[in-house]
Amino acid sequence: MKKIIIVGLGNMGVAHLNSFINSKIEAQLYLIEKRISRHKNIKKILLKKKFNNFQLLNKSPKNKLFDFAIVATKPKDRLKAVEKLISSNKIRFLFLEKFLFNELVHYKKFNRIGRKKITKTFVNVWSNLFLNSLGIKKNKKKILIKVFLPENKLLTNLIHFYEIFRILVGEKFNIDLSYFNLKQKDKYYYDGTGKIILENKMGSQMVIKSKKMENNFIFNYKSCGFEKKVKISKGQIISLYNENKKKLPFPLASRVTNKFYKSLILNKKSGEKITFPKYSLIEKSSKIILNSLFYKYKKKIKIC
């Protein structure tokens, strides 16, 4: 029987868990959550779905072969969690949450300890899945994208939109933080309000702007007379140019993680194929973002 491990059962870890149990997956789940206070709620979720093939632990086991491993801890704990997991177990495929790491030295350490697993490590960044849902592809024309996000949600979501812009225009563009108002969220992490602008020399631009709004976002794409304007709300992509308000499913972890697992492990050849970017690609983009923030604010900015 296949073995799957999820390290960190906060909101994102539970979303990944739901993806598996909602599909009634035939696999043994190892669930690692150091906060014992969360265990009761996790068990309640599993029992409600009548899923019994699991082990709920407060630390990673040893000497296991896991087919698929998810590390969904907070960024400050992620390297330590990955080290413990891969030093004592064998992992076929590793799936990491964003924002990968907040310390540049952590990327070096991961590249050292995980060097044999880098090509089989992926990151939960939904940019390509989102573009595919909208039917938006790269072209050589000038593009303009406007994104509206809730206040204090710009940095935490920046990697998704950075990757969308990179996919559409290529590697060479600037990050303008002149209009971004940095704020400290808690003891560890920062976010803010205002806007962040991505722009290349050809005049293509993405403006990511904060707005007083519910926990959703608006995405507006224009290029050569073609325009898409959608609102993402309650897990649905809703067209704002469609009188019938046609809805598409947004690639939430609770929907797509199990499909991604099947694409990798079961070599799924038919039906919907779900792919996520490899670690090496998101590592490069994450480090550019961290360096841009450091040069602007002359201090380390941590993103959750």
Largest sheet: 9 strands, mixed
Beta-strand proportion = 25-35%
The CATH class of the largest domain: Alpha Beta
Report the helical percentage: 25-40%
CATH topology of the largest domain: Rossmann fold
SS-derived structural category: alpha/beta
Structure summary, number of beta strands: 15
User: Terminal Cα separation, in Å?
Assistant: 34 Å
* CATH architectural grouping of the largest domain: 3-Layer(aba) Sandwich
Describe the structure.
This protein has helices at 11-22, 39-48, 75-88, 104-113, 127-134, 154-169, 253-265, 279-297; strands at 2-7, 27-32, 54-57, 65-71, 90-96, 121-123, 144-150, 174-176, 180-184, 190-199, 205-211, 217-223, 226-233, 236-239, 247-249. The strands form two sheets. Strands 7, 8, 9, 10, 11, 12, 13, 14 and 15 form a nine-stranded mixed sheet that branches. The chain has a six-stranded parallel sheet with strand order 3-2-1-4-5-6, with helices on both faces. The chain folds into two domains: 2-125 and 258-263 and 274-280, NAD(P)-binding Rossmann-like Domain (Rossmann fold, 3-Layer(aba) Sandwich), CATH 3.40.50.720; 127-250, Dihydrodipicolinate Reductase, domain 2, CATH 3.30.360. The two termini are 34 Å apart. It is of the alpha/beta class.
Per-chain topology:
Blueprint: E1 2-7, H1 11-22, E2 27-32, H2 39-48, E3 54-57, E4 65-71, H3 75-88, E5 90-96, H4 104-113, E6 121-123, H5 127-134, E7 144-150, H6 154-169, E8 174-176, E9 180-184, E10 190-199, E11 205-211, E12 217-223, E13 226-233, E14 236-239, E15 247-249, H7 253-265, H8 279-297
Parallel strand pairs: 1-2, 1-4, 2-3, 4-5, 5-6, 7-11
Antiparallel strand pairs: 7-12, 8-10, 9-10, 10-11, 12-13, 13-14, 14-15
